[in-house]
Amino acid sequence: MTNLSKFYQKTWQQRLQALIDQKIISDQQRKILQCSASDPELGDQQIENYLTHYNLPEGLALHYLINGKRYLIPMVTEEPSVIAASSHGAAIIEKSGGFTTKVSGHLLWGQIVFEKVSQPEKLKKNLEEQQEKLILIANQAHPSLQKRGGGARHLRVRILAADLVSLDLAIDTQEAMGANMVNSMLEAVANYLGTQISAPVLLSVLSNLADESLAQASCRIPVEFLTRPQLAGQQVAEKIAVASRLAQLDPYRAATHNKGIMNGVDAVAIAMGNDWRAIESAAHAFAVKSGSYRGLSQWQLNSDNSILEGKITLPLPVAVVGGSIKIVPLVQLNQQLAKINSATQLAEIIASVGLAQNLAALQALVSEGIQQGHMRLQLRATILAAGAQPNEVATILKQMQQMKKTDLTTAQSLLAKKHE
Ligand code: NDP
């Protein structure tokens, strides 16, 4: 049986040695872990049982014109077509005048949930009457946030079932995402309420449904800018509008529509050191808020059918400080590349990226199909997976394109022939 006892107490080198001693990895594999470990000291500070850094490629998306200002946008993704599609969508929107954005707030909800409630209406009234006091207690638990202009703003009480009541506190987290700050503020309020309310507190924690941190991006595209080799711009625009309607009607399509949006959203969130799991869960919870899961963006033609109007609304609990943002040098560099200095600005950028990503995907889908562009980029990954060295990719790629083949077996046999 494997013995990795007190693994967390070992140094990084000891941990790697323990894996070798237990015959879990070879000496050769230790070298892979060591080479990939770009900053073991930092990694050891960031997480438990650190082994190595898992690296993802980072690239720059271009052509972003947001509220009249140009941006270079670092994106981290392993999916081949994401950055190309992002820049392509942004270029069409740039020609059309760029993105307009609106950020409606940066509040995070925190929940204190009471169980075994016997009189939910009475508890609701009691909590609502104490709003001022509860907000004071929350703010006293993290006074620096209030000093920066943030803090607890208001509360609401929701009766979830005959025995379950949720007290929700809306907290302005300023430039931070706020999960830790909100959790400690909630704890203080829960402790206070524990002394005066008979129903026990089941849990107190932030909600990731960040619907008080909404960012909207919109654009207006003259239909001629959507022209594809086989299809007039007018037809492309009409088909995009129908595809958009489809994503409002059919959750099977909406899931894919939104995945395409999140391709861009996550890539920027990761580059900016943000918690992309929180952004993902917020986006999907928001997408289903009406009761059925819907697309997060909408496209429609204007009254004379000359302009395609696009709009996206995303809950974006994003940050420029907090978590690991200030301790990862690459995140600092990425903030500088994108010239970002506020959470609002980051939300504006991410919403715009989501819309551009969606436009590029829909334009391809309703015209030549997504595979053509996708596969050109995916083919490189397939050839590398077949065992090619980077300097062999171009030759094999050309041969495969001539043969109109995209599969791994063909790549492997061409490579084998080359090595004969
Ligand atoms: P932190 O705990 O790092 O708190 C934010 C920090 O930023 C504080 O130390 C604060 O200083 C500092 N700060 C400096 N300038 C500002 C400013 N202008 N506005 C606001 N804060 C400022 O992070 P968060 O509370 O933001 O929590 C985010 C982390 O929590 C992420 O790593 C996330 O992954 C994780 N998390 C997420 C959960 C979820 O999503 N469900 C659950 C639990 C954790 P000061 O202390 O002086 O106020």
From TrEMBL:
The keyword RNA-binding does not apply. It holds the Pfam family HMG-CoA_red. The keyword Oxidoreductase applies. GO terms for molecular function: hydroxymethylglutaryl-CoA reductase (NADH) activity; hydroxymethylglutaryl-CoA reductase (NADPH) activity. It comes from the Bacteria. It catalyses: (R)-mevalonate + 2 NAD(+) + CoA = (3S)-3-hydroxy-3-methylglutaryl-CoA + 2 NADH + 2 H(+). InterPro entries: HMG_CoA_Rdtase, HMG_CoA_Rdtase_bac-typ, HMG_CoA_Rdtase_cat_sf, HMG_CoA_Rdtase_CS, HMG_CoA_Rdtase_NAD(P)-bd_sf, HMG_CoA_Rdtase_sub-bd_dom_sf. CDD domains: HMG-CoA_reductase_classII. Pathway: Metabolic intermediate metabolism; (R)-mevalonate degradation; (S)-3-hydroxy-3-methylglutaryl-CoA from (R)-mevalonate: step 1/1. Its EC number is 1.1.1.88. Belongs to the HMG-CoA reductase family. This is 3-hydroxy-3-methylglutaryl coenzyme A reductase. It comes from Liquorilactobacillus nagelii.
